[in-house]
Write a structure and sequence with these properties.
Elements (H helix, E strand, L loop, with lengths): L13 E6 L6 H11 L10 H10 L9 E6 L1 H7 L1 H18 L6 E6 L3
Parallel strand pairs: 1-2, 2-3
Helix pairs in contact: 2-4, 3-4
Amino acid sequence: MTASEPGTPSTGPHRAELDLDGVRDEPTFLDRCARDLALPEWFGHNWDALDDCLRDLSWWGRPSGYEIRIRGWQRFRAAAPETARTAADVLADAIEYWAPRDTPLTVTFDDQE
């Protein structure tokens, strides 16, 4: 999925899908986030940088909201429980950050095959 040009108004939410198939560790998770979420070049491939990206989101344009659908979460969590806990915390912090704003962030976990 491609992001809108920064600053470009959008009428609907920006949707992205994060596919965690085969992800078993932190570096691979962060690489997959960079690829699937089309994170900006300045993404530093660490937890703080992911948090910064998920709180900025200007690189996704100006939609009416943000939606991230995550596939394969249960297998990822089983393979890398510590990394999954940290990832869940970063996602929860981003959801909390966007909740009072006009462009909320929704994250759904889809493990149906």
